[in-house]
Every structure is written in structure tokens, then in C-alpha cells.
Amino acid sequence: MGILDVKNVSYEYRNKYRTVKAVNGIDYSFDAGKFYAIVGASGCGKTTFLSLLAGLDIPTGGDVIYASGSTKSIDRDDLRRDDVAVIYQNFNLFPLLTVLENVMYPLSLHKTPKKEARQIAKEKLAAVGLTPEFHKRFPSMLSGGEQQRVAIARSLAAGGSVILADEPTGNLDAENSRNIIDILKRLAHDENYCVIVVTHDSAVASCADEVIKLRDGKIE
Fold first, then answer.
1. Per-residue pLDDT for the chain (220 aa), expressed as one digit of tens each?
2. 61-66 vs 69-70, strand pairing mode
3. What DSSP assignment string belongs to 52-81?
4. In what order do the strands lie in the sheet with 194-198?
5. CA dist 174 to 27, 30, 92, 202, Å?
């Protein structure tokens, strides 16, 4: 078993006219220390699959299994707080918190003493290449690449072992995209995270240890 196992997972939804099987019988095992890319055409089920991995949705068939158990039975809020970090294309930073406060936020959820939380946040910001001059800035004062670095630092501060990223380079130029992917690769290879990225970007996919290509909700 890997750090995250997917067992015959399906997900379907119904509208007025039909039933759509967005994910259709996927089996896969994800390991720590690897960088994965999930690719495929629009509508192939990539984002739905990532939502299932994050516990944001529950499979209608099969199981998504972490060490703590199936996402059908465990507390999924606890899962995302303690074990799994999700990074989004639009960064999802708190606009009224400084860079340092954004990274400290998940530590506050763990009741980490403020002094300790501040030190951990500083270390995580340094790990993504953001120096102390950035700590008191607000998200609106940062470039897109800098905001995504803060989002990654915040995910590291949460202390989980799995990083899920939904088009993390989608709003970035080529140089910043390369920088973000280099950070995610380093976290997988040097820090033993399991990093799973949904992407349309062939340059991102070319950097992955394993590429999972979806078509019609299935792995090709």
C-alpha cells in the first residue's frame, strides 16, 4: 500500500437529463517521495478526481484510503487540516492577513503556541524562497508567483504528508511556473512529500515521476 490508495473509485452525478460518470473505476497507489501529474482533456474527470483525493467529495463507488482510513468514514475536515494540503490556481490566501499570518493560520488550528507558530511559518517561507522582507506584506502586494509560494508554505506549515495541487501554474508566466514546479519537485524528492498535480501544462507533466492520463473518467 502507498501513502494514499484508490480502490475502484467512481463518482457520478445526475442532472435533469442524464447520469454522468465523471470518474469511472480508477485504481491507483500513490507513494511518498514522488511527484505525480494528472493530465487529460477538459471534462475528463481530473478535477473531480482531485476533489475525491482531498475528501471534498465522497466516491459513489470504491474507496479513497489514507492511513487513517477511507474518506467515507473518517472526519474529512481533520484529514484536510492534518494530513492533506490543497493548493489552488487562484492561491486562496486570506487578503487581510499578512504573508506570515497566512502561513501561521493552519498552525493556529492546531493550537500551536504563537511563538512556535511564528518560527515554523518563517522556516516554511524560507523553504519556498521568501525572505523576511515579504513577511509583513499582504497578498495584494505580491506577484502571482509569490502568492503561490505563500500558498505552498502554508500547506507545509499544516504538517501533512500529501500535497494536492489544482493547476498551480495556471495563472503564472513561464518563469514563475518553472519555479513553482521546481519547489514541488524538491518537496517530493528531498522532503518525502507525496505531490499530486492536476495540470494542462505539458511542461509540468514532463517533470513528473509518474503521469496519470485520464480519458472519460478512466486511466488510459
1. 789 999 999 999 887 788 888 999 999 999 999 999 999 998 899 999 999 999 999 999 999 999 879 999 999 988 988 889 999 888 999 999 999 999 999 999 889 999 999 999 999 999 999 999 999 999 999 999 999 999 999 999 988 899 999 999 988 998 999 999 999 999 999 999 999 999 998 889 999 999 999 999 999 9
2. antiparallel
3. HHTTSS--SEEEEEETTEETTTS-HHHHHH
4. 84-88, 162-166, 194-198, 35-39, 210-215, 218-219
5. 33, 28, 21, 12
pTM above the 0.85 mark?
yes
Beta bridge partners of 215: 218
Could you tell me which residues come within 8 angstroms of residue 99 by beta carbon, excluding any fewer than 6 positions away? 125, 130, 134, 135, 136, 137, 138, 139, 142, 150
Q: Report the amino acid identity of residue 7.
A: K
β-pair partners for 63? 7
The DSSP H or E segment spanning 18 is none
CA–CA separation, 82 and 98 (whole Å): 22
Sign of the dihedral through C-alpha 193, 199, 204, 210: positive
Indicate the SS3 state at residue 45.
coil
Q: Are 51 and 64 in contact, with CB atoms under 8 Å apart?
A: no
Q: Strand 218-219 vs strand 210-215: parallel, antiparallel, or unpaired?
A: antiparallel
